[in-house]
Amino acid sequence: VDFIDMKNVENRNLVYEAMRNEMVYDRSKYTILPLSKFGLMQITRQRVRPAVHVVNKETCPTCNGSGKISSSIAVTDVIENNIHHLITKQNEKKLVITLHPFLYSYYTKGLISRQMKWFFKYTKWVTLIPDSTLAIVEFKFLNDLGEEIELL
Predict the structure, then answer these.
(1) Are residues 18 and 80 in the same domain?
(2) 30 and 46 in contact (C-beta within 8 Å)?
(3) d(Cα 22, Cα 32) in Å, to the nearest integer?
(4) How far, rounded to the nearest angstrom, does the alpha carbon of residue 83 sit from its chain's CA centroid?
(5) pLDDT tens-place string over residues 73-129
(6) What distance in Å separates the CA atoms of residue 43 and residue 1, rounded to the nearest whole number?
(7) What DSSP string describes 94-131?
(8) 138 in the same domain as 77
(9) What stretch of H or E contains 32?
(10) Containing domain of residue 107, as a range?
(11) 90 in any annotated domain
């Protein structure tokens, strides 16, 4: 503790004694040295209780702690490739995609949205359902019975 500007020796001794009197109630082991000629008081304390360790970090549910996720462009390419495959190759009659609200807004925004472009391209309406429980790059394709379609 710094008492550099305290010139009077009597006041220095009063501060030292007051500190010793107050530290009597401390349960920790401690050492207090009188003020040095530079006006510094040295105080040491030994920890009695174990340190409290509070965990304030969680594993990211999207990347499982790896710090890496698929880029949104890659996800949109995968979705569009799957739509093409399911409609043209597997002849799915009705297609429903549940996806994160961010992806939902990406596909439905604008006057001629991507969802509308799919309709013009495939002449089938692809229903999009936002689901906030999904990770930002996660999606599920459902058939006309509401069953999840296994993707390649």
Answers:
(1) no
(2) yes
(3) 11
(4) 31
(5) 788 899 999 999 999 999 888 999 999 999 999 999 988 999 999 999 999 999 999
(6) 8
(7) -EEEEE-HHHHHHHH-SSS-HHHHHHHHHSS-EEEEE-
(8) yes
(9) strand 30-32
(10) 72-142
(11) yes
